[in-house]
Amino acid sequence: ANQQFRDHYGVAAMNSTAGVNTTGNVTVASVFVPTTGNKTLDAVIGFVLLLLGVLIPVLVCCLKEKIELILGALEATVECLIDMPCLLIQPVFGFAVRAVAFCLALIGLVYVVSVGDVKRYEASDYMPSGVLRTFDFEDDELPYLFGYMFIAMWIYEFIVAWEQIAFCYATQSWFFAPYVNGTKDISQSVWLVGFVVGITYHMGTLVFGSLILAIFRIVYLIIWYIHKQLQGNDDGGAVNAAARGVAAACMCCIACVESLMRYINKQVYLVVVVNSNGFCIAAQIVVQVMLSEMVTFGMLEGATKAFQVVGGFAITGLGAWITWLVITTSSYFTDPHSRHFIASPEYVTIAAGVICAIVAGMFMNIFDVVSDSILMCACLDKKHRKENGLGPNECLPPRLRALLGKGSKEHFGGDGSGSESE
Question: What is the pTM of this model?
Answer without folding.
Answer: 0.70
